[in-house]
């Protein structure tokens, strides 16, 4: 049976909405020196909304109709926001014949005879869509912290959709508390560099890695493990490999099932303040054990 200190620790954790799930959670978290934080859905609420729509010359309705048609097949929070915005503006999306989602990049769908693409600007330019006329506006929106996605139909850019998300209320305080206890804090995200840097500055993390594809997240954890124990905090399907790779994987309670299954600790309350608290519980449980 579990040592009494761990039973007590588990109770203290539960009172704070923290589920310490494995022995590692108690024994290992106190030894962690680096903590990696996902941006969307972890440092932020993860409920983006459409804030700006900029067309490449055509109508906003056409742009939103194509975007919503493609995104209707995706479960990504960005996709849900686009579908909602189109619905609210009374736009009816055309029918989609087939689609393929590319995690961390975007979605490609067949509409009529043509192919439509919605995703990160890099995803579209990689697929030979020319976004040069929208470049300046994308940069301004990204610098303002927006996640910018681009929309193309039959190889032609229709425009961009800028989405905004809000920081969790205790994000700044939680990062400060983790840093004060000697942890180095690293933001890792699939989102664009400018928006990531802006959020990174706002919450005060030590390092920012942006534009990271899901499989790279786990590789970054591995690299940071070379000389220290690493914890990873995330919420999405795209975080699951990194959560498994980390010494301590921590999932937000509102996250996807796959992330939750991959984690040692689950923050049921979705409070980021639970991170320093869980570390303190790990320290105390161990002290009483020896
Ligand atoms: P994060 O690390 O912020 O949780 P993801 O790895 O899920 O983000 O996605 C990274 C980027 O890929 C997004 O910022 C967006 O540009 C693009 N992307 C991913 N999925 C979609 C989608 N369904 N529709 C549009 N863009 C997407
Ligand atoms: Mg996320």
TrEMBL record:
Entry keyword annotation includes Cell membrane: yes
GO cellular component terms, semicolon-separated: plasma membrane
Listed GO biological process terms: copper ion export; copper ion homeostasis
Keywords: ATP-binding, Cell membrane, Membrane, Metal-binding, Nucleotide-binding, Translocase, Transmembrane, Transmembrane helix
Repressor listed as a keyword: no
Location(s) in or outside the cell: Cell membrane
A GO term for molecular function: P-type divalent copper transporter activity
Family: Belongs to the cation transport ATPase (P-type) (TC 3.A.3) family. Type IB subfamily.
Protein name, per record: Copper-(Or silver)-translocating P-type ATPase/heavy metal-(Cd/Co/Hg/Pb/Zn)-translocating P-type ATPase,TIGR01512
Organism: Enhydrobacter aerosaccus
Segment of the intact protein contained: 410 to 699 of 768
